[in-house]
């Protein structure tokens, strides 16, 4: 089967056998699953322990908005379907908890942005917006926060002031 979205999952217990495009992979607890949109795969629990995992289905438009692109500018493609990066695993678990929980929308947006930034770091595919322009936009955003700290505002307000995506703003 395949999914139209990016699949990002954290195996929290047990182990999974994953066959992606005819190639076998093993994902034990602590692994992160990284599947591209429309990538054919089969998966099954292996071993005696119950398989448990947290999975997020992320729309390609969100990944593109985060600046995650291939060097030639095309859509991000994960090179391997299983990662053993413990920091990425923790970030996936935290994002899943936030997005399924009762966090406010700004906190959920931050969790998703942290996840996409972690994926960008892990894959090396995060587009850079250029330091001088970015530094000025961050300074402008800080001035806005200082001037409006007693008022209610959210991440959408800050991204409008900064003129950058939430994903890039939160990375700074």
From TrEMBL:
Keyword tRNA processing among UniProt keywords: no
Keyword line: DNA-binding, Transcription, Transcription regulation
Residues of the AraC-type arabinose-binding/dimerisation domain: 1-116
Keyword DNA-binding belongs to the record: yes
Any one biological process term the GO annotation gives: regulation of DNA-templated transcription
Superkingdom, taxonomy of origin: Bacteria
Protein name as annotated: AraC family transcriptional regulator
